[in-house]
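re: the backbone from monday

yeah here it is again, tokenized this time
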């Protein structure tokens, strides 16, 4: 594993200051070598932001040097690992460094004009991107860290916190252990039958236009192909694990959306069956009063036990660590897969993405993806107009595939939501009529009592049963829409489809231009990553994280 440190500012010829930086580098290595015996050090520099003394300091401490160079800049003859940008805009190199490194060491004299403002600009980028930065004032010789402010006194605990995501262990999908139980298989069949009945079965995403995600495709740039294959392999690993866990967890959500209606029907039968059976049957079959009374009591007792069991069962599910783990692993694997799906279109071409901003609550995931290509990074990369054109072509393909997926998913959920909400409104109107009718019956029976007390009791109990069950049936449709996230998915896919259409028009307009701009292509990458990973995946993650199995 390699630790990537960026260097910024003008480092003076000062042995005491260099020794302090030596100590910081040694702390990094010492902290990580406990669990990671092979720790390499990389120093990422750019002539636009880095003074040449940093190169000497890096060589003295055994750093492998990486340079980011725009037009008419130096370092080319001194550093073997070099990324060259066909643009005069130095900020592209600075943002690329910030997106790729784990932390920053900077030397700054606290004057914004130093290096024509470059040192301050780099620290400002680090602050905005929330990149760990330790900087030494060449004016006061004090050491600070960029953390909620520019002037936070440096403490060793800060470096310890920074290094936690780097001590990250293996990068593997979490698999489900054990076979499905009979209950899980039963409800899974019910869920699939329900979706099939509405022509809304879940279909696995297929990359038709998007060549980057096809195993048979190869990049024209042979240096980026090994990284694409590695990222694609990891994408398939996490995608398959997410699909497996999705089936289990969404089945539990489906079950939870149906059980309240079953519980209400069971309770209604328990409450009114003694009257309906014990007094209703003798009205039709005289002479069966004793037997009917016993049968009614047995049914009522059994239903009360069933109702108690249903409540206990749902309470158990709400506290189940197994179900919680299915939920957590499903969300984690799906989020990792979606990140890899998007980023695979950029990283193999040398185009970086600000993972910290896209995944602000998962620093370990950011670190894993950032370091996926540590052992296969090309020595020299050239990012020019052709690179920008290739990236945009694959971006268009990804958008077209995503639009097809979003359109299909939108139609599936539209069918389900339309059916459930239609029947929900119909049954709710029916429930309103029944409840009002039951209220009216009370006044009618007072004014016109029936000749038989049993007939009066049976009539009241039958309408009470309906007044209890029918509203629960109406609630069943509403709960099914919300608990299974059908309405959320319907709205989300509809919103994403509209936004992707705008991105496709923008991309096609850029592709129609002969002179492809690196700067504009970079912004398109940022916009699309934001759309796919913040607007879509982050919203989905929030929704499913809050989709819990509450007690009845």
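seq for it, each position gets an aa:
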């Amino acid at each position: 594993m390699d630790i990537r440190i960026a260097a910024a500012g003008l480092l003076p010829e000062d042995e005491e200051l260099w020794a302090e930086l030596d100590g910081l580098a040694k702390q990094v290595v010492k902290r990580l070598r406990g669990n990671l015996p092979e720790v390499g050090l990389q120093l990422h520099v750019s002539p636009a932001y880095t003074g040449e003394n940093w190169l000497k300091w890096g060589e003295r401490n055994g750093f492998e040097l990486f340079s980011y160079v725009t037009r008419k800049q130096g370092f080319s003859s001194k550093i073997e690992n070099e990324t060259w940008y066909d643009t005069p805009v130095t900020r592209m190199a600075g943002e690329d460094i910030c997106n790729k490194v784990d932390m920053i060491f900077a030397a700054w004299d606290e004057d914004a004009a130093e290096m024509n403002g470059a040192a301050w600009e780099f620290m400002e980028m680090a602050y905005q991107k929330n990149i760990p930065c330790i900087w030494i004032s060449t004016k006061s010789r004090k050491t600070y860290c960029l953390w909620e402010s520019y002037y936070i006194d440096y403490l060793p605990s800060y470096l310890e916190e920074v290094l936690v995501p780097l001590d990250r262990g293996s990068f593997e999908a979490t698999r489900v252990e054990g076979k499905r139980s009979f209950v899980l298989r039963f409800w899974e069949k019910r869920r699939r039958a329900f979706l099939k009945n509405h022509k809304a079965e879940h279909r696995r995403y297929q990359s038709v236009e998007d060549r980057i995600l096809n195993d048979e495709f190869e990049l024209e740039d042979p240096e980026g192909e090994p990284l694409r294959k590695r990222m694609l392999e990891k994408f398939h690993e996490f995608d398959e694990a997410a699909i497996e866990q999705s089936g289990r967890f969404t089945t539990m959500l489906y079950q939870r959306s149906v059980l309240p209606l079953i519980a209400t029907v069971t309770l209604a039968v328990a409450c009114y069956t003694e009257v309906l059976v014990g007094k209703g049957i003798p009205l039709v079959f005289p002479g069966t009063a004793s037997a009917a009374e016993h049968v009614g009591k047995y049914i009522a007792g059994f239903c009360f036990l069933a109702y108690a069991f249903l409540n206990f069962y749902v309470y158990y599910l709400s506290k189940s660590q197994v179900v919680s783990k299915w939920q957590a692993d499903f969300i984690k694997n799906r989020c990792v897969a979606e990140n890899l799906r998007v980023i695979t279109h950029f990283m193999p071409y040398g185009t970086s993405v600000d993972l910290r901003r896209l995944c602000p609550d998962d620093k370990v995931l950011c670190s894993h993806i950032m370091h996926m290509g540590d052992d296969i990074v090309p020595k020299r990369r050239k990012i020019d107009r052709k690179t920008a054109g290739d990236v945009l072509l694959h971006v268009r393909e990804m958008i077209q595939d995503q639009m097809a997926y979003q359109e299909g998913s939108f139609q599936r959920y539209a069918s389900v939501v339309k059916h459930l909400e239609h029947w929900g409104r119909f049954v709710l109107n029916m429930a309103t009529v029944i409840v009002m009718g039951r209220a009216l019956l009370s006044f009618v029976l007072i004014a016109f009592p029936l000749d038989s007390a049993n007939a009066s009791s049976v009539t009241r109990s039958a309408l009470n049963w309906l007044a209890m069950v029918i509203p629960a049936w109406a609630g069943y449709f509403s709960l099914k829409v919300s608990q299974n996230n059908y309405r959320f998915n319907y709205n989300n896919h509809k919103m994403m489809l509209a936004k992707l259409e705008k991105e496709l028009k923008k991309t096609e307009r850029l592709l129609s231009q002969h002179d492809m701009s690196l700067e504009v292509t970079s912004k398109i990458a940022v916009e699309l990553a934001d759309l796919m990973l913040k607007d879509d995946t982050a919203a989905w993650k929030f929704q499913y994280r809050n989709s819990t199995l509450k007690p009845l």
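The CA atoms of residues 18 and 57 lie 7 Å apart. Residues 223-545 form one domain.
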